[in-house]
Design goal:
Elements lengths: L16 H15 L22 E4 L4 H9 L8 E5 H12 L21 H5 L4 E5 L10 H14 L4 E5 L14 H8 L2 E5 L20 E2 L4
Parallel strand pairs: 1-4, 1-5, 2-3, 3-4, 5-6
Helix pairs in contact: 3-5
Length: about 220
C-alpha cells in the first residue's frame, strides 16, 4: 500500500533585505536602547568573539564596536547590556527577602523586575556587564559580579565585562576582589586606544598576553 502523502506544510518565505535589516536593528535595540544609532565603523576586533569570554577596557567607542557585532548576528540572537548596578539590584531583591539589615542606599529603591541574579543574566546568548555605573558602596559587590559570571559559565554562555580606562576593574574598584581577579585573569583582554599600557597586556591562560585595541571609525 502506498504511503500517504506528507501532510501540508505552511508556506515558507524569505524576508526581503529591507525587512531583515529592520528586524536586526530592532533586535539591536532590544539588547541596548539606542545602540542601533551608534556610529558605524568599518571593522572591530570584537567581531567573531560573541561566543568568547572577554574583558574589554575602552571608552564610549565600545558602543560602535558592539553595534558592529550585533548587526551581523541573526535577528533571533539575544544579547543584553547589563550595568553593575543592575546586578546588585537583582541581588538586593533577593537579599531583602530575608529581612536583615542591608547597608546599601540602593536597597530603598530595589526593583522587583528581576528577583534573582540568574533571572537577570541567564537568558541572553551574550551578556555585557557594564562596569562603573554603581557608585554606592556595597560590601557584596565583588561577590555579586563573580556569581553572575559563574552563573553564565555554568550554563556555557559567554560574558563580556566592559570597564573604562579612567576607572579600570582593578585593585581598589568597588567590584574588585581576588576571586574576580582570578576569573578575569584567564580571559582575553581587549583595550582601547586610550587605555593605560597595563590594560594592553593582560595575563591570560598559558602566560600569553593580549595586545588588541579597539579603534573608532578611521
Amino acid at each position: 500500500m502506498a504511503s500517504p502523502p506528507d501532510p501540508p506544510h505552511p508556506p515558507s518565505y524569505t524576508r526581503c533585505e529591507c525587512v531583515l535589516r529592520k528586524d536586526i536593528l530592532a533586535n539591536v535595540e532590544r539588547g541596548f536602547k539606542g545602540l542601533s544609532k551608534a556610529p558605524v565603523i568599518e571593522k572591530s576586533p570584537l567581531l567573531g568573539k560573541h561566543s568568547t569570554n572577554l574583558r574589554i577596557t575602552t571608552g564610549h567607542t565600545f558602543f560602535s564596536h558592539l553595534r558592529h557585532v550585533a548587526v551581523r548576528q541573526p535577528a533571533t540572537w539575544m544579547f543584553k547590556v547589563i550595568s553593575d548596578a543592575e546586578l546588585v539590584t537583582a541581588w538586593l531583591a533577593t537579599a531583602g527577602l530575608g529581612g536583615g539589615e542591608i547597608l546599601d542606599p540602593d536597597a530603598y529603591t530595589v526593583s522587583t523586575k528581576y528577583m534573582t541574579i540568574p533571572d537577570l543574566v541567564s537568558p541572553p546568548d551574550l551578556v555585557v556587564v557594564r562596569m562603573g555605573v554603581k557608585v554606592a558602596r556595597n560590601v557584596a559587590a565583588s561577590e555579586v559580579l563573580a556569581e553572575a559570571i559563574n552563573t553564565r559559565f555554568h550554563e556555557g554562555k559567554p560574558t563580556w565585562v566592559w570597564d573604562e580606562p579612567a576607572h579600570p576593574l582593578d585593585v581598589g574598584h568597588l567590584f574588585w576582589s581576588d576571586i574576580v581577579g582570578r576569573i578575569l585573569g584567564g580571559w582575553e583582554h581587549i583595550g582601547g586606544v586610550d587605555s593605560p599600557s597595563k590594560a594592553q597586556k593582560p595575563a591570560t591562560k598559558g602566560g600569553m598576553t593580549g595586545k588588541k585595541t579597539l579603534r573608532g571609525n578611521r
